[in-house]
Design goal:
The chain is mostly helical. Helices cover about 75% and strands about 0% of the residues.
Length: about 240
């Protein structure tokens, strides 16, 4: 039997509804309205963690994802990978799976979830293009209705927000419902597989940091990054000496 979080199936369905609502609103915030930055991984993943009872796990997911997608910019015809869809789906799958497995969002389950769900960032880019095409068609329809004397043509245009809202909400809800399968899959991994997954998560952290440094348009970026890394290492070493 698949492991379930405390509260069983009813609680899992409630988490799916919460994840769908938060993910859908974040998708609208990303490009369509509000622009409050809740669509960024650094905000969205901890927010989902709060809804699912694991804020720390959400932050653990949000930080590397934010760094990884830091250079993606929605400008003109440039459509980057969809960081919001991946972050929302990954948090929706990993956090309840960690609770169900009793491990929390440990590196192995984070890496396993990332490996399985990474294609969503590319799929999300395709969904963005589809949404933009639908939005253009709705704008044209609104103009036609306005020319015909429709008093509320903007209502037609606002329907363009439905596409990202419902697609992201559905994917997040499905991710929560699939989380027991992710927890079961982690339980099937042996010691070597778990060690490999843990190493893969640390590699993903290093990759995200490198991607963030690459996105910084500053000639001294590498020097500043290297100096900061040495400072952090020295501070950690001194703390270990003081509190062994």
């Amino acid at each position: 039997m698949l492991p379930l979080p405390p509260g069983g199936l009813a609680h899992l369905l409630a988490l799916a509804a919460a994840a769908g609502a938060i993910g859908g609103l974040a998708a609208v915030d990303r490009k369509g309205a509000f622009q409050l930055m809740i669509s960024r991984p650094l905000v969205l993943a901890p927010l989902l963690g709060w809804a699912m009872g694991d804020v720390r796990g959400g932050l653990q997911l949000g930080v590397p994802l934010e760094l990884l997608f830091l250079g993606g910019v929605n400008l003109g015809g440039a459509v980057p990978e969809n960081e919001t869809l991946l972050s929302a789906a990954l948090a929706s799958a990993v956090l309840p799976a960690g609770v169900a497995a009793g491990t929390g969002a440990d590196p192995s389950i984070c890496a396993l979830g990332l490996v399985l769900l990474a294609p969503l960032s590319v799929i999300g880019r395709w969904l963005d293009r589809e949404g933009e095409a639908r939005a253009v068609a709705l704008v044209q329809a609104a103009r036609v209705r306005a020319a015909l004397g429709d008093p509320e043509p903007a209502e037609v245009q606002m329907r363009g927000l439905y596409w990202p809202l419902f697609t992201t909400a559905a994917i997040c809800a499905l991710a929560v419902l699939a989380s027991p399968g992710l927890a079961w899959l982690r339980e099937q991994c042996g010691g070597r597989a778990l060690n490999g997954l843990e190493g893969a998560w640390h590699a993903a952290l290093a990759l995200s940091i490198a991607a963030a440094i690459r996105a910084i348009r500053e000639k001294r970026a590498l020097w500043l990054a290297g100096t900061s890394a040495l400072a952090v290492f020295a501070a950690a070493y001194l703390m270990k000496l003081v509190h062994p």
